[in-house]
Structure prediction request, 264 residues.
Amino acid sequence: MIPEPVHLTDEELLLLADGEIDRAAEKSFREHLELCAECETRMRELQAAIDDVIALHHTELDAQLSSSTGPRAQLKAQLEAQDANKAPFFLRRLVPGYGVSLLAALLIGIMAAPVLKHYVQPGNLQASSRVTLPIPNKQLTPGATRPVKLAEICPAASDDLDPSVPASKRRIVFQEYGMTTAAEGKYQVDYLINPQLGGTDDIRNLWPEPYDATVWNAHAKDALEDRLHQMVCSGQLDLASAQDQIASDWISAYKRYFRTPQPV
Prediction:
């Protein structure tokens, strides 16, 4: 039997289009696109959808915020305060020369919804909920903890391995995220709140986290888990705060405690 060809996932194509991958991964993905007509076609469809969103932005939002004072001026002032190079490529194209603020992201999301809804039909992207990003879907993975005391979690070494997630639960996690188990090699079914911080193996605390498709991957999160564990056990941070921060937005927590905009 001829094995099924391995294609880039929808999430990998999105990350490539958005410039949110390291150089090695980008080189590998682009080499794959040169050899795979199916993936190259899907990439063109995705980029066309992005172009539609950008065109919609310039024809509709510009008209609505045409005043040189008021909302548009405030938006541009906020954007100017950001570093454009830190913004994803797709968002930088929406507002050339500027970074991205929360307000801009909200406006972009409102505009993009109809176009992306059209794009993520069968035959293009399977569904928006099926794209797994470094931060999990909060509706599927809000996090779950058990009552623990510092005396229970602090004797363990900060780099102790997390308990292995049973295969049956891994399958459920992939199903909930609309992914096939064929993607397992590129993802770690990870604990959102790791057991060393009181996290459980409840399905609400598990999600498919990429290994290498983005710099914000399982390796970076492991480093944050070690840092938070050390801070909790040394009295620098209380356990409840550590749990909340890693569950709410672990990337922001990483930037805060490692004092860097990118993984070290």
Residues 137-258 form one domain. The chain has two domains: 10-129, 137-258. The longest strand covers residues 187-191. The beta strands are 187-191, 206-210.
